[in-house]
Amino acid sequence: MPHPTDSRPIVLLTDFGHIDAFVGILKGVILSIHPKARMVDLCHEVAPQDIGHGAHLLDISLEYFPKGSIFCAVVDPGVGSSRRAVLVETTDYFLVGPDNGVLWPAAGRNRIRRIIHLTRSRYFLPQVSTTFHGRDIFGPVAAHLSAGIDPGAFGPQVSCLTPFAFPEPKPIAGGMILTVRHIDTFGNIGLNLTREQFRQFADKGFCMRVNQVDITGHYHSYAAAPEKIPFVMTDSAGFMEIAVKNGDAASRLHVKKNDPVVLTARGEKNDDGGL
Amino acid sequence: MPHPTDSRPIVLLTDFGHIDAFVGILKGVILSIHPKARMVDLCHEVAPQDIGHGAHLLDISLEYFPKGSIFCAVVDPGVGSSRRAVLVETTDYFLVGPDNGVLWPAAGRNRIRRIIHLTRSRYFLPQVSTTFHGRDIFGPVAAHLSAGIDPGAFGPQVSCLTPFAFPEPKPIAGGMILTVRHIDTFGNIGLNLTREQFRQFADKGFCMRVNQVDITGHYHSYAAAPEKIPFVMTDSAGFMEIAVKNGDAASRLHVKKNDPVVLTARGEKNDDGGL
Amino acid sequence: MPHPTDSRPIVLLTDFGHIDAFVGILKGVILSIHPKARMVDLCHEVAPQDIGHGAHLLDISLEYFPKGSIFCAVVDPGVGSSRRAVLVETTDYFLVGPDNGVLWPAAGRNRIRRIIHLTRSRYFLPQVSTTFHGRDIFGPVAAHLSAGIDPGAFGPQVSCLTPFAFPEPKPIAGGMILTVRHIDTFGNIGLNLTREQFRQFADKGFCMRVNQVDITGHYHSYAAAPEKIPFVMTDSAGFMEIAVKNGDAASRLHVKKNDPVVLTARGEKNDDGGL
Questions:
Q1: A170-265 has which fold?
Q2: From CA C263, how far away is CA C267, in angstroms rounded?
Q3: Cβ of A131 and C186 within 8 Å?
């Protein structure tokens, strides 16, 4: 790895939330091991134990961080079970976390160099609990790694990583059934559909039906859309979303995570504000 | 600017919330450009797209930060439209954000040296989206600025900034109609009335009526007030607020943001705990 | 204190929440005094003015931070009253905050070296408000301390600290009545019962009754427990909690903070997954 360890921030992604001291304790442990560690919060409001949510946030965020960054991703419903703790070294990044799928999509963005099974307890806290491996294992390993310990020191190399598959759009006659992947802070409705997957529909005209509402507008920015009418656009990560200009689409359409959305071709180009 | 760039923290104010990775990605982008950047979170829970809320928080916070600080304020309902992206250099600070009013009150606290229209795309991310200029423009510019790039490098100087006017108290016979500016974490009800504007009422006796409740107590601290009875005091930023000792005034009075409050003179000095 | 001041992070614990700029302003003040200060957020979602909650979080977190850390704990319902502002120097840490009990349990974890009454206003902000001593007193003192000022400079030594007693389990015939101390992000129900206090019940068989539901399962990890059935386990801080595997125990059992839980001995060992 050509990057000096000084430029390796530890990027934290968890479902620990903000009402407890879990995130603070994790940081205390890291600083106790590596007092000069630089830590950055990616997100701590992953839906509790929702591996897919964590995997998605890690996946879309990874490449905005400096090469050499150490991601410590703790969404860990299997803590205390036999699921493995791993460190994945890719061409550009390090990923530390439970081997339950949360690291999979992000790991696939680069070439994987090696996967280390974290077994060397000298790099853990002296007491390892059955409930908080962020504090006891993942944080300490990330801290030692940021301090310059070689990945190979943390345990034996293993050959595979637990995969995670995001739900794909389901083909139906003349279209597909999508799933609401998440609702963001602004009430925008994130879909499991990439810009590329949407292109054929955008080109030929489409209708998106959600909760008995038909959406046919397609704009390239919130600003270009008319007020109050739900429309489709590309979000900042390259996925399609349903939005309402200066409004909250999810509240307006009574949509929640995992709801289905039916996308069909219309054979007639949509109003798109001259996209 | 006499301050060495090392002492210039980047202070982040957004409406991105904490449930998504937006803030984390913004920080990743900044660190990718300037690995030694120091970042401080001012607040990320500005009400979605509420320029006034963001402008107020920036305005009351500015002077508590070190001279030379770079404020990156992203409350940006017009993202993707033709609204300008700007950098304002004042005597003491740098303000980076959309030119939609959010920077206006804070910019007015110092003498403005120059306003730069951010046009030099070499300082942006290579791909600029239509939805996330915090990541693509404002974060990168703040990072380059913190790394020592001269403000003039980011684009041409322009002569004016979009103003923002907070709603002023409306005079009525014998008093004024106020507006609830915001409800804080503790349920304190923030009013659009400064200590100075309130002084004449405090001196001569006043009544504040909100949701059919008359408030006449005026104390200089929560501790000095009686339990359970709503009273008026000065908040930590110099504005008047309605509070309940050890309680939540907004819940108790069923008050929400933008509600009206009628302030009238009574001609009789209020109970004020010997203020 | 043998630790160089450079390795002294300032650890922030408050009830300021995230919707306001209070935490950001506190950090701005600290950086204005000590531009190289390292700050870590322990938690800012202490329940408003809940000294016991703050005291508990500080108590269980303290020892995960580096020796020499400066804890700035601001849960301060008595701000503006005559309650003292103090700095406690223990063998390993510094604690700065109001002398209302919030520092007590944490201070008792080490030997107390000295307690300083914060009176030297040259180390405060020039204007001290009656509502925000985090900004005006505690933050500034923590910043000066992290910059190397000797604790004795902040005021005279005093001999005692305001104590705080967590509610203890109440003995009844054949058992005890517990109290729900808090509900965490995952919905786990935290009890005022330590692992040690629980041991005799675990050994001989027990029943925990909460809201008419009897809980008899006892597991050493979420992973070892069966789905959907509430069970008892030890949390990451050494206290007993009621949990539901991959679920939200508090919602399922309709339990909230301060609810009673009755623990009785059964005289028959429980299902415990071979603990």
A1: Elongation Factor Tu (Ef-tu); domain 3 (2.40.30)
A2: 13
A3: no
Cβ contact, residue pair A43, B49, below 8 Å:
no
3-state DSSP of B16-36 = CCCCCCHHHHHHHHHHHHCCC
- Quote the pLDDT of residue B135: 98
Q: What average pLDDT does this structure show over A158-181? A: 96
Distance between CA B8 and CA B156 in Å, rounded? Answer: 23
**Residues C185, A81: C-beta atoms closer than 8 Å:** no
CB B247 within 8 A of CB B230: no
* CATH number listed for the domain at residues A5-158: 3.40.50.10790
CA C130 to chain centre: 25
Q: Which residues of B touch A185 (CB under 8 A)?
A: 15-20, 22, 48
pLDDT digits (tens, 9 = 90+) for B19-54: 999 999 999 999 999 999 999 999 999 999 999 999
H-run or E-run covering C133: helix C133-133
- Interface confidence, given as ipTM, is 0.94
The values of phi and psi at residue B137, to 5°, are: -125, -60
In Å, what is the CA distance from A236 to each residue of B130, B133, B135?
Answer: 8, 9, 9
Among C5, C57, C186, the strongest candidate for a mutation testing the A interface, having the largest count of A CBs within 10 A, is C186
Spatial separation of the C-alpha atoms in residues B72 and B138, rounded to whole Å? 7
Tokens for B130, please give them: 């239509």
Residues of A in contact with C226 (CB under 8 A): none
Distance CA C193, CA A143 (A): 32
Q: What is the DSSP letter of A44?
A: S
pLDDT for C273 equals 52
For residues B149-176, one letter each, b for 16 or more C-beta atoms within 10 angstroms of the residue's C-beta and e for the rest, the string is bebeebbeeeeebeebeeeebeeeeebb
CATH 3.40.50.10790 segments of chain A: 5-158
pLDDT at B2: 39
Range(s) within chain C of domains with CATH label 2.40.30.90? 170-265
